[in-house]
Amino acid sequence: MKFEYDIEGGNFSRAGFASSEVKKKLRQLNVDIQIVRRIVVALYEAEVNVVAHAWYGKMTVDIDEEKILLILDDEGPGIEDIDLAMKEGFSTASPEVREMGFGAGMGLPNIKKNVDTLKITSEPGKGTRVEMITYMKGGKNEKS
Amino acid sequence: MDQNNYKMKVSELVEKLGLKVHSGESNLDKEVWGGYVSDLLSDVMGNAGEGMVWITLQTHKNIMAIASLKELAAVILVRDLLPDDDTAASSEAEGIPVLGTSLRTFDIAGKLYEILKNNNLPQGS
User: Alpha-carbon distance A43 to A128, whole Å?
Assistant: First the structure.
């Protein structure tokens, strides 16, 4: 089963909308509540990253019996140094975005903590792709 | 604070802490077992838990997206800050109250902690 949502870069009043729709879908599909709660953290952070940094993005959620695959593809400035971006506390967010309480450099670490696998690929000047997988059984969810 | 403890209704918190109800008045029956204090949204996203009250000075609409995704019981704005119009509208739509106090963060957090803690003492102590 596959769902797609558009994300508008720069529009903070809609930030979280796609994540909230996915949450509703996962609840309807009776996905384990602990898994839903973790995925929502990762999805929201990834969505806000698109809103804060990119011009346009798409969220794709692909669910089967074994796993949930989440992909965020954006057209935007991309990430020059992904290892640096992953560092807790590192952020390139604007002062305005920081003033709202975003841009603390906690987003990507939050994502990493809440999904089983995270893969980021980026082409500076073009965009970024964030791929996350959460397994229904045997993932981090059962270890914590 | 432990999630298995006795839970207090948001309406009881409003009464005991003298809070203003800025929005979401019809949703004061949610139960609270703890709180989280932060103005960094990712911090709340990563560390708050369902059924908590969130104390903050952020007033923009994104706090409601977080409160809803995290299934928080209510948001308390400090120092007489008012929610933005779209924040209040979102609070009504999501069914999560935005409350207010004239106190500073440290003081309201202390009071909230105290009443939740006292609430969990055995009867008669």
Answer: 15
